[in-house]
Specification:
The complex is a heterodimer of chains A (107) and B (244). Chain A is mainly α and 107 residues long. Chain A contains four helices and two strands. Chain A has a two-stranded antiparallel ribbon. In chain A, β1 (60-61) and β2 form a beta hairpin. Chain A is extended. With 244 residues, chain B is mainly alpha-helical. Chain B is 77% helix and 0% strand. The longest helix of chain B is centred in the first third of the chain and has 28 residues, at 20-47. Chain B is globular and about 55 Å long. The chains are: A mainly alpha (107), B mainly alpha (244). The interface between A and B is large, with 76 and 102 residues. Chain B: The chain crosses the membrane at residues 20-44, 56-78, 84-106, 149-169, 175-194, 201-220, 226-243. Chain B: It is a multi-pass membrane protein. Chain B: One of its GO terms (biological process) is L-valine transmembrane transport.
């Protein structure tokens, strides 16, 4: 049940960089507004960061480009389709987990 | 219901609509999602070598699903604190949008109360709140706290449950738990694209982000790729939109 010092630092640091974007707009934007280009840029951040993370998860292994984890690539296909069909985060996560379980069973 | 009953009940309705308890009730539809994703996060955090107390602190202080998955993965891979924090910063930068979108409905609150509302903001509670707001121009603080706190406690519970059962799951890959993270990102990406009605441009930006992230990983190992891809692909989207 111990808490390591370096893990604690990671938790506090990560929490701080998460806390600020959560609260600053609520506090500040009741007084001022972001410039238009800033809002536009921020609008694309969720898309970019999610896509980049998916790319990293699916195509990068041991820090290098790889098509070796083809089972994950295959499992991504039904996961995307279910996400488009159900528009549910829970449904998508379950679909992804079931897909990869089934694929690993056969390959 | 008789006419008489309606007349008795109607004056009380606005107050009930805004109560803490109503916020708790409005959170219920999202609870199953929190439970399952939190459970998966707890299992992965445990298998990444975190202690139960560390997992409680992680879910209670950080309180962000995707960030916790990333922290668990990078801690397991032996990553240093700074790259973990930078990656999590970019992943959670999207909260600026959620917080900014809610700000007009909390103009009546003090900065400190706004901070309390924002500190427990998540994708899901934002979704519930923005649905509620469709019929009014102000959100009640108590209702928002009911919604936020229910989600928060449920999330910590789910993480601890996952960590507890994770002790006996020696091989999380067998249950596809390692795929919960990429599946969650796929879900968040598709949900974001579907809800915005800018599909073509969003898909272009997404493809750019994947190509840049993978390309950078080719020449420069680590998590720099995600950061570069986020900055460059978002700028590409902004420029194309402006130029059109």
């Amino acid at each position: 049940m111990e808490v390591r010092w370096d893990v604690f630092l990671i938790i506090i640091g990560s929490a701080l960089v998460t806390f600020l974007p959560r609260v600053l707009p609520l506090i500040v934007l009741s007084r001022m507004e972001l410039p238009e280009w800033g809002i536009r840029w921020l609008n694309y951040v969720p898309i970019s960061v999610m896509a980049a993370l998916i790319g990293q998860e699916l195509f990068v292994q041991d820090e290098h480009f790889s098509l070796l984890n083809y089972i994950e690539l295959l499992a991504a296909i039904p996961t995307v389709l279910i996400a488009m069909k159900t528009k549910s985060l829970l449904g998508t996560v379950v679909a992804g987990m079931v897909s990869i379980m089934v694929l690993r069973y056969f390959f | 219901m008789s006419q008489e009953e309606l007349q008795v009940k109607s004056p009380a309705t606005p107050r009930n609509e805004d109560s803490f308890i109503q916020g708790v009730k409005d959170c219920i539809p999202t609870l199953l999602g929190y439970l399952s994703i939190g459970f998966a996060a707890g299992v992965l955090e445990k298998t990444a070598g975190l202690s139960i107390l560390e997992i409680i602190l992680l879910s209670a202080i950080l309180y962000a699903g995707s960030a916790q998955f990333i922290a668990a993965g990078m801690i397991a891979a032996g990553s240093a604190a700074t790259p973990i924090m930078i990656t999590i910063f970019f992943v959670n930068l999207r909260h600026i949008l959620l917080s900014a979108a809610l700000s007009p409905y909390f103009r009546h609150l003090t900065p400190f109360k706004n901070m309390l509302v924002g500190s427990l903001l998540t994708d899901e509670t934002f979704g519930v709140a923005i649905n509620k707001v469709a019929r009014r121009n102000q959100l009640n603080e108590k209702w928002m706290h009911g919604l936020n706190l229910t989600a928060y406690l449920n999330w910590i519970f789910a993480n601890v449950a996952g960590a507890y059962f994770g002790q006996w799951i020696s091989d999380p890959e067998k249950f596809g738990l390692d795929f919960a993270l990429p599946a969650m990102f796929i879900g968040l990406l598709i949900l974001a694209i579907v809800s915005r009605k800018k599909v073509k441009l969003d898909v272009i930006v997404a493809i750019c982000a994947v190509v840049i992230a993978v390309g950078v990983a080719f020449v420069y190992p680590g998590n720099v790729g995600v950061i570069v891809a986020t900055v460059v692909a978002s700028t590409i989207g902004m420029v194309i939109e402006k130029w059109k």
